[in-house]
Amino acid sequence: MRKIVVFNLISLDGYFAGEDGNIDWHNVDSEFNDFAVEHTADFGTLIFGHTTYKMFEEFWPQAINDPKLSPEDHKIGQIINDVEKIVFSKTLDKVTWKNVKLFHDIDPEEVKKWKEQDGKPMAIFGSGTIVQAFTKLGLIDEYRLMVNPIILGKGKPMFQNVDQLKLTLLNTKVFGNGNILLTYEPVKEKRT
Prior knowledge:
This protein is 29% helix and 27% strand. The protein has helices at residues 30-41, 50-63, 71-82, 108-116, 128-136, and strands spanning 4-10, 15-17, 45-49, 84-88, 100-103, 122-125, 142-147, 156-157, 167-174, 180-186.
């Protein structure tokens, strides 16, 4: 069984991006970069919505050889370029990035079939609309939310229009720069 994992950096007030989609407030340093390389390598498939996919497609293929970027960014770029990618978009007609499949709609039964396969976890980066849809459909197995020490005040909320969902804390990791990684799984309902 493969898990579907949400991995996102969020502000203290629950935004995954600024109002205009910016993420320049992400609190990154060498400790974070080392963690990001290790963490990204754990995933077998990346799942995106249109906006995050386009942002990643514009940045990561060139990151491998960009001398202005860190060696960790080069490693992350290589991992992201090589891994299987799935994008959900109603407006994209085609995708050209390496190892990517395009779907226009989320078919919960199809996603459940993906989860039944053997392999590394599938991860959703950014993609608030996809996170919200997958959460509503009960398709998320784990939430890994890295809370950055910032209050944005305005932005794109991670869980807009999502019903209440109880979670169990699995793990925490505190970073020297003030980030805190919180790992949760949905509470499994008891059957009587």
